[in-house]
């Protein structure tokens, strides 16, 4: 897979470039009943996770995703977004990452995702973004991948911010925030917890991202929507959020909710955005995105962005982290 990351932010575009986006909200875990979920848990916790049975359940998940993606294509979507960990291997990797079979299962599940979803892309002409577990050189990553209308993986991203509630013990963190120049525009990705860090979204905007896709796991009530809207509004870049069980949404470049699913599982949020339209402040006749870029004062942000202590590098957490940050500012 070859990445084509862009550099500096692009200038304004005059041509209208309408993009129809479908943010998917599959049923929790992608299974129809609690009994099926319980069965998957038993499979995962069995001897080395019983690799073949785990892969069969990956196929069941992919069947489920294919059905909702076909609905997205029927709604006229140019690109559809699936949630974080669409193959549901996170718990399996957490428990069995030290075994020889875990890397093989992760790779085979990824290949099945690309093969089956890619086939649908070729049939429908639709792009698909999804969260998937990946493995490279013995390390596991919480990743997002984009398949184009040919079914080819044209972009991938590894989650860079891993919550210390346990995910940091399962996955390795990515080390870049790339932007990819694709046939639907310049795209960037964040995964779930990444959205808490405004610098990450800003980095994608400064590199020229015209839309950001965010596969995520679940909804955090009102402040989840508020964060998504503020990130998009701050940088005048649309955001498409897919999550399990409902509340998928599409936020336009002005921070308004263009479409949202509510709490209904197996639902779609579909909206058409013009990536070439000016971003307008409510009271000013200016293109908000490029005016704000011109007015930035990075010379004033060094402490926040460059010079702040990285206590995470030492593996610390808890109250001591806040104490060091407070001391740093004095």
Description:
There is one protein chain. The protein is an alpha/beta fold and 330 residues long. The chain folds into two domains: 18-283, Nitrilase/N-carbamoyl-D-aminoacid amidohydrolase; 297-330, no CATH class. The chain has helices spanning 34-45, 51-74, 90-96, 100-124, 167-170, 198-206, 221-235, 288-295, 302-307, 319-328, and strands at 18-25, 79-81, 127-136, 139-147, 153-158, 179-182, 185-189, 211-215, 239-242, 249-251, 257-260, 267-274. A six-stranded mixed sheet has the order 5-4-3-2-1-12, with helices on one face. A six-stranded mixed sheet has the order 6-7-8-9-10-11, covered by helices on one side. Helix 2 (51-74) packs parallel to helix 4 (100-124) and helix 6 packs parallel to helix 7. It is globular and about 55 Å long. The model is unreliable at 1-14 and 31-35 (pLDDT under 50).
SSE order and pairing:
Elements: E1 18-25, H1 34-45, H2 51-74, E2 79-81, H3 90-96, H4 100-124, E3 127-136, E4 139-147, E5 153-158, H5 167-170, E6 179-182, E7 185-189, H6 198-206, E8 211-215, H7 221-235, E9 239-242, E10 249-251, E11 257-260, E12 267-274, H8 288-295, H9 302-307, H10 319-328
Parallel strand pairs: 1-2, 2-3, 7-8, 8-9
Antiparallel strand pairs: 1-12, 3-4, 4-5, 6-7, 9-10, 10-11
Helix pairs in contact: 2-4, 6-7
């Amino acid at each position: 897979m070859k990445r084509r990351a862009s550099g500096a932010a692009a200038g304004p575009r005059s041509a209208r470039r309408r993009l129809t986006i479908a943010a998917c909200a599959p049923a929790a875990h992608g299974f129809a009943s609690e009994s099926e979920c319980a069965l998957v848990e038993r499979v995962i916790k069995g001897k080395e996770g019983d690799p073949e049975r785990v892969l069969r359940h990956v196929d069941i998940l992919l069947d489920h995703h294919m059905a909702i993606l076909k609905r997205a294509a029927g709604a006229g979507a140019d690109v559809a977004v699936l949630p974080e960990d669409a193959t549901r291997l996170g718990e399996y990797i957490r428990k069995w990452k030290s075994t020889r079979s875990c890397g093989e299962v992760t790779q085979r599940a990824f290949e099945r995702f690309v093969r089956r979803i890619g086939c649908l892309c070729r049939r429908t002409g639709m792009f698909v973004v999804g969260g998937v577990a990946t493995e490279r050189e013995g390390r596991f990553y919480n990743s997002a991948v984009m398949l184009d209308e040919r079914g080819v993986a044209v972009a991938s991203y590894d989650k860079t911010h891993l919550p210390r509630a346990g995910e940091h013990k399962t996955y390795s963190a990515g080390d870049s925030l790339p932007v990819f120049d694709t046939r639907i525009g310049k795209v960037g990705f964040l995964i779930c917890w990444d959205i808490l860090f405004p610098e990450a979204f800003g980095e994608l905007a400064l590199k020229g991202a015209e839309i950001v896709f965010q596969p995520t796991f679940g909804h955090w009530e009102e402040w989840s929507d508020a964060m998504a809207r503020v990130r998009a509004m701050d940088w005048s870049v649309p955001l498409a959020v897919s999550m399990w069980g409902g509340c998928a949404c599409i936020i336009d470049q002005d921070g308004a909710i263009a479409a949202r699913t509510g709490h209904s599982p197996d639902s779609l949020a579909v909206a058409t955005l013009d990536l070439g339209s000016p971003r307008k402040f409510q009271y000013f006749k200016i293109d908000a995105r490029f005016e704000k870029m011109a007015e930035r004062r990075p010379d004033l942000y060094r402490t926040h962005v460059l010079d702040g202590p990285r206590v995470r590098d030492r593996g610390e957490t808890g109250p001591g982290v806040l104490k060091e940050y407070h001391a740093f500012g004095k």
